[in-house]
Write a structure and sequence with these properties.
Blueprint: H1 2-31, E1 51-54, E2 60-63, H2 67-94, H3 106-115, H4 117-126, H5 130-149, H6 156-161, H7 170-184, H8 188-200, H9 203-209, H10 211-216
Antiparallel strand pairs: 1-2
């Protein structure tokens, strides 16, 4: 009986050791998804040496000799820090959340496809000025340069959902703007009500009832 207890104890210890080793290995692997903060990275899409320096809070400062090099570095830094958020936002705007999350986001995708933000962003890019297209192309190149040169693990959210991000497109940046505009208009019902009240009420009464709206107008 003692022998059995000893074997059981050795087996339990072995399992604990294996779990610890696996946990440490997984942690080390996930740490490879963190952005490279030191050293240099060789890329071919920029024309001059460009730096991304971070303070003790991780906030980047970009120094570049041309605007397009700065846009490139900005895209690179954004992809380093916020790749999953960037991908989720463009999927939200394009009505493609359910491809990676599941059926629970189908109503959101249906709404986004009804609003047709993806097509609007594509037309906006096609109708954009040469300067806008150049800036978006440089930013896009920066995001995709990070995707091309990165090694190690993707951010853990991608691992948990089991997919890899697609290359960034210039229209994706404009799609972000559409989503942000929608989020900032969440008080549209209150704004419409304030406008109707302002039209129908005497100015003094409206000012008493809604002083904040009066000052904002």
């Amino acid at each position: 009986m003692r022998r059995w207890f000893r074997w059981i104890g050795l087996g339990a210890v072995s399992i604990v050791i294996l779990l610890i080793v696996a946990g440490l290995g997984g942690l080390i692997w996930l740490r490879t998804s963190l952005p490279q903060l030191d050293g240099s990275i060789a890329v071919s899409e920029i024309t001059n040496a460009t730096t991304i320096e971070r303070d003790n809070r991780g906030v980047p400062t970009i120094r570049a000799k041309t605007l397009n090099d700065a846009y490139f570095a900005l895209g690179f830094a954004h992809a380093q820090d916020r790749l999953f958020q960037m991908d989720m936002m463009r999927r939200l705007g394009a009505g493609r959340l359910s491809e990676v999350i599941g059926r629970q986001t189908v109503p959101v995708d249906r709404l986004m496809r009804t609003l047709n933000f993806k097509a609007i962003a594509e037309r906006q890019f096609q109708d954009g000025s040469p300067a806008l297209k150049s800036a978006l192309a440089a930013y896009t190149a920066g995001v995709n340069a990070f995707l091309a040169q990165r090694s190690g693990a993707l951010p853990p959210e991608f691992v948990l959902l089991g997919y890899r991000p697609e290359p960034w497109q210039p229209e994706d940046s404009l799609l972000w703007g559409r989503i942000m505009a929608l989020q900032l208009s969440s008080n549209q019902a209150e704004e419409r009500l304030n406008l109707e009240l302002q039209k129908k009420l005497p100015a003094d009464l409206f000012k008493i009832l809604l002083p904040a709206a009066q000052s904002a107008s």
